[in-house]
Amino acid sequence: MKKQLFVLLICTMSVSCSKFVETRTPDSLFDGTKVFENDNSAIAVVNSILADLGKTSSIVQGSRGQSVVSGLLSDELHTVSNFADYQEIYRNSVLRNNPIIDNIWIEFYANLYKANTVLEGAVKSTTLSEKIRTQIIGESKFLRAFINFYLVNLYGSVPLILSTNYEQNRSETRASVAQVYNQIIQDLKDAEGLLTPDYVNHTGAVVAQRHRPNKHAVQALLARAYLYRGDWANAEAAAISVISQTARYDLETNLDNIYRQAASKEVIWNFAPFVSSAGVNTVYTGEGKHYSPAILKLQGVPPQSFAYDISTYLYDGIVSAFESGDKRKTDWLESVTAGGKTYHFPFKYKTDLFGLSTVQEYMVILRLAEVYLIRAEARARLGNADGAKQDVDVIRTRASLAGTTAATDAQLMVAIEQERRVELFTEWGHRWLDLKRWPGRNNPGISRAEEVMSVVTPLKGGVWNKNWLLLPIPATDIINNPNLEQNPGYN
Amino acid sequence: VSKYIFNLTARRDGSSRFAPGRKFGNFAAAGAAWIFSEEPFIKKALPFLSFGKLRGSYGSTGNDAIPEYGFLSLYSFGNLYAGAMSLSPTGLYNNGYSWETNRKAEVGLELGLFKDRVSITASYYNNLSSNQLVAYPLPSIVGFTSVLSNLHAKVQNTGLEIELNTVNVRKHHWNWNSSFNISFPRNELVSYPNLSASSYANNYMEGYPLNIFKTFNIVRVDPETGRNVYRSYRYEFDTVNSHLLTVPSDAKIPFNTGKVFFGGLNNSIRYKRFQLNLFFNFSHQTGPSTHSDLFESWGRMRNMPVDRYLRRWKQKGDITDVQKLSNDPASNPTLYSGKAAAYSNTYYTAISMVRLKNASISYSLPEQLMKKAKLEGCRIYLQGQNLLTITNYKGWDPENQSGNYPLLRIMTAGIELKF
Questions:
Q1: pTM score, two decimals?
Q2: What is the ipTM of this complex?
Q3: What is the pLDDT of residues B269-284, one digit of tens each?
Q4: Cα–Cα distance between A452 and A73 in angstroms, integer?
Q5: Which residues of B touch A491 (CB under 8 A)?
């Protein structure tokens, strides 16, 4: 009998092999352990939040941005787009998994993660300069508050994410609206103590451009947060700390300057121009690109086939809300007649993709006019009718209108609603957020939004329900975090 | 000829895809086979046995099929902001993962009978994989939607595979071969610590296969309202508030959509210059009864199978299993009751099928004729795919339940000339 036995043993000494399986950071990427070792790379993480929000097609500007989404949800915008994502928003019939709505949530939280990364990294680092450490902590706290402000206003009570610890955060429950606002106000108070009144660049050097939030940007957002919480006295105080900086801030007489000057005196914070893939600054903003009447001017028909861009125009209600002689109506609206119908467009941003105007424009996030209106409202609520009237009239005078005739607190609130509506239209969803936070004019038991939308939504072809005041949370987040509950009406 | 075969392997694998201290994994395998048909006493006792082999193996292997650099904390360069560079993290940082391991055990029997005119192969395998490398899904609130990590789950794949080949007729003009195979695969999530708190809480169940669908429980169609009545587990039994039901944790009834068994039968028959091939495949599984668009009736314009349409609830008192139709997708009860139906127990059904997958017949022209025509060969053939299906399935296609196109029936006729 012939036996064959093959035994093959391969013995490898791990010591000699180790070097073959060593890895170093690939050249195209940056070593994460070194990011917070020096000023330039540490602040680059803050820059990425600003660049992400500031790009022309982001969750805050352009065809999927705050002004468009909130404008479609409220009584500001119509759309000629027949795409379901847009139609759902426009008819207040958003379904779970609407990609535009999901993306707002996902990208806001992705940027919150970056802000938390900076806050953790800056505290631990021993090699950052004190100046940059202070700046990036201040900026990140401001940005965290800014993002949480929009999250809580769009989605209601949201999970409060304050660290990068995903093992812990992945099962986070929804915090109450009050808890979220407390955090927003706390972050803003911290940032107020850290940021300088001067505008600085990424090296901390003082610059004219207002592309990074300063101390007064913090105060402006703080004033807004207090106003939304009904803390009138603090809202007024925070507004005063901005308005009193007369050497730095003033209303523009030429309305175009607000959006065309990097250092306009009315601007409290604007985004730096988006850098295209070719490395060139784009002259247009996401807003100018989206609200462009150019297609109608060139083609003469409503561009239904366009998925998102250039597909919205103003609701008649907002057009007729302007009083005669209002300078804002002539300067900030553009109309085009096509197919026997006149379409009105927001025309605050005039530079668009089609080159009808090629003047450099900047996306404005915070401006002085809003701060005046915050103070007006806070004063009206505090019973200071004269003070409120003065602030409303500052805005009206700039628009070439006579002073308001409102005298009582209730009349003043109507005047303030009117002024906010025509001054801040299609900017940052002000109208939608205002409607949601105000009590009804006729029935204070419900919100102003319910009052207005129960009339407007049916005109848009939808069915109004107060559940539609809040947007749905992405369904995948509910699945991946069993502790998260969906907003009512979206289950 | 060897009668005994042994095979031993031990290996230490290193991969640059894992963090320092986790790069190396030790794996080993052992196998043995006995060709018992070579044993004299077998030859004497079982003369009809032309080949017999018994084999077994046991071993472990590692898997590092994940992207490079995953364990490093990395930042990528993004758009400039006001002339300054920007950096953002490329993902969540986790350097704690290492090799995925697969433990494989297999026994097999190979037999050749009657001078190999009949050959049989049967094998049984039992594989256990653990520490699976996955992009673990996370809610986007953590900043990213997944993190690369080892899953501390044990997944077992077992199965029996049988193959039978026979030469039924082997003559000069007349040749007939058959082959038959059948597989019984089974997959089970053996254990998953703390599954209910994980991101997979709504997808998997311990003791069940990975390819289950957890479904809502439709109790009946309410004769009064015409809407599905679902069983809610969070609230009380038998609620009509069906919109509560798309809460994923209310989906409790699992359906295993994996195949219970599948296989094929091929017959190849030659008579003189004629050649006939017939290939049947068959399978049995549970799957969606139609594709979901045809099944759900939640207020949008959709096609639906006629039998479902005719059975639908029409008026008070109707007792049926198809809820009423609606043209109002925005209304909550319609939407959720309708949508949930496609995620419900009634959506799944047993699917058995036998299909004549391939059939071909050909005729090769005689060689003498070819020589005259100065051809090397000429064959005329007719073949068809998906010619005949026997199934209990009411959807479009038992092999393609997704709702795209059913498999096409293809007929081809041709002449093949060789020069």
A1: 0.80
A2: 0.90
A3: 999 899 999 999 999 9
A4: 12
A5: 243-247, 336
